[in-house]
Automatic annotation (TrEMBL):
GO terms for biological process: lignin biosynthetic process. The keyword DNA-binding does not apply. This is mannitol dehydrogenase. It comes from Lithocarpus litseifolius. It is an enzyme of class 1 (oxidoreductase). Pfam families: ADH_N, ADH_zinc_N. It catalyses: D-mannitol + NAD(+) = D-mannose + NADH + H(+). Oxidizes mannitol to mannose. Provides the initial step by which translocated mannitol is committed to central metabolism and, by regulating mannitol pool size, is important in regulating salt tolerance at the cellular level. GO terms for molecular function: mannitol dehydrogenase activity; zinc ion binding. Its cofactor is Zn(2+). Residues 23-355 form the Enoyl reductase (ER) domain. Belongs to the zinc-containing alcohol dehydrogenase family.
Length: 365
C-alpha cells in the first residue's frame, strides 16, 4: 500500500514558489523527506541560510526551456548548517557548514559517474524541478530547509563566508571546471573571459589565482575601471571596438565565453593563437553561427562545459578558500525576489543576488 505524502516526507518546510509561467514567486508550504527513514539513511538535512539567484532560476520559473513543473521552488546555490544526518552518513555532522549546487542525484553506475562526472550522467537529477528516485518533484533552495544525499553535499570551509560562497556552487564550478579540463590553468598563459556577469567576474578571480594573464572582453566600456582595479584583470577589450579587437588578434591561449545572449563567434576565434581554445559556458536560447574556416586554419578548438562533478566541485570550493575567492554579491530579503528577477532580466546586478533566507524567510503558518 502506498504511503501518504506526509509519511514519505514528514518534515514540514516553507519556501517561495512559482505557480505558473508568469514566474511570480510567492509563499508556499510543503514538506521534505526525513533522514530517519530507511530511504534517508544517507541523507543530510540542513537549515538554509543563504541561496544565490542564478540566471537559470529566471528561465525555469518562466518555463523558458519548456521543462518546468509547477509549483516550482528555484535555487541551486544553497548554503547552510547541518541540523540532522542519516544513520549511514559519514562525511558530515550536525553543525557543519555545507552547500548543495545544481544536482541531488545520479545513477552512480555509468561511465560518467565512475569518472566523477555526475553532472554528465544521463540520469542526473536536478536540485529543483526534477523527478527524484521516489517519484516526487525536487524543490530548491528558496526555502527554509534542504535535504540531500551526502554524495551531493559540499563541505564549506570555515574561512569562506556563507553568503558570498553560495554562488560558487553554480557560477564558480561552471568556470573552474573548463579552466582545469581544457588546460587553461597554467601560470603565464593568456586567457580571455567574455562577459562580466555572475559567471565572468568569478572566472577572472579563479584564473588570476591560477597565475594566468586575463583579458576581459565586454560590450560595456564602462566596466573597464572595475575590471582592472577591483577584479584584477590585466587588460580589457571592448568587443564592439574593431581597432581594439584587431590589435588583439592571435594573442589568447584560450577563451571562456560566459555570454548567454546572441553574439558572433568569429571575432572571438580571431583572438585565439594557433591551437587556441574557445570554451562556451553560456547557453544562448538560439543556435550560434559557427564559422568553420577560421577553426581549420589555426587548428583551433571550440568546446563546451556544464558545471562539474562532485569531486571537482569540492576541489573548487577548497581552492576558493585557499585563495580567498568569493562572488561579489548583493544580499536581498526573500520578499524582494520578484524585483530581483526583473532586474536580472536587465542584468542590473553586480554580480549575483543572494537571498538572506535565514533572516527573512518566515512562515506565515
Amino acid at each position: 500500500m502506498a504511503k501518504s505524502p506526509e509519511v514519505e516526507k514528514p518534515n514540514k518546510a516553507f519556501g517561495w514558489a512559482a505557480r505558473d509561467s508568469s514566474g511570480v514567486l510567492s509563499p508556499f508550504n510543503f514538506s521534505r523527506r526525513g533522514c530517519t527513514l530507511a530511504t534517508g539513511e544517507k541523507d543530510v538535512r540542513f537549515k538554509v541560510i543563504y541561496c544565490g539567484v542564478c540566471h537559470s532560476d529566471l528561465h525555469m520559473v518562466k518555463n523558458d526551456w519548456g521543462t518546468s513543473t509547477y509549483p516550482l521552488i528555484p535555487g541551486h546555490e544553497i548554503v547552510g548548517e547541518v541540523t540532522e544526518v542519516g544513520s549511514k552518513v559519514q562525511k558530515f555532522k550536525v553543525g557543519d557548514k555545507v552547500g548543495v549546487g545544481g544536482m541531488v542525484g545520479a545513477c552512480h553506475s555509468c561511465d560518467n559517474c565512475a569518472n566523477n562526472l555526475e553532472n554528465y550522467c544521463s540520469k542526473m537529477i536536478l536540485t529543483y524541478g526534477a523527478k527524484y528516485y521516489d517519484g516526487t518533484i525536487t524543490y530548491g533552495g528558496y526555502s527554509d530547509t534542504m535535504v540531500s544525499d551526502e554524495h551531493f553535499v559540499i563541505h564549506i570551509p570555515d574561512n569562506l563566508p556563507l553568503d558570498a560562497s553560495a554562488p560558487l556552487l553554480c557560477a564558480g564550478i561552471t568556470v573552474y571546471s573548463p579552466l582545469r579540463f581544457y588546460g587553461l590553468d597554467k601560470p603565464g598563459m593568456h586567457v580571455g573571459v567574455v562577459g562580466l556577469g555572475g559567471l565572468g567576474h568569478v572566472a577572472v578571480k579563479f584564473a588570476k589565482a591560477m597565475e594566468v594573464k586575463v583579458t576581459v572582453i565586454s560590450t560595456s566600456p564602462n566596466k573597464k575601471k572595475e575590471t582592472l582595479e577591483h577584479l584584477g584583470a590585466d587588460s580589457f577589450l571592448v568587443s564592439k571596438d574593431q581597432d581594439q579587437m584587431q590589435a588583439a588578434q592571435g594573442t589568447l591561449d584560450g577563451i571562456i565565453d560566459t555570454v548567454s545572449a546572441q553574439h558572433p563567434l568569429l571575432p572571438l576565434i580571431s583572438l585565439l593563437k594557433t591551437q587556441g581554445k574557445l570554451v562556451v559556458v553560456g547557453a544562448p536560447e538560439k543556435p550560434l553561427e559557427l564559422p568553420v574556416l577560421p577553426l581549420l586554419m589555426g587548428r583551433k578548438l571550440l568546446g563546451g562545459s556544464c558545471a562539474g562533478g562532485m569531486k571537482e566541485t569540492q576541489e573548487m570550493i577548497d581552492f576558493a578558500a585557499k585563495h580567498n575567492i568569493t562572488a561579489d554579491i548583493e544580499i536581498i530579503p526573500i520578499d524582494y525576489v520578484n524585483t530581483a528577477m526583473e532586474r536580472l532580466v536587465k542584468t542590473d546586478v553586480r554580480y549575483r543576488f543572494v537571498i538572506d533566507i535565514g533572516n527573512t524567510l518566515k512562515s506565515s503558518s
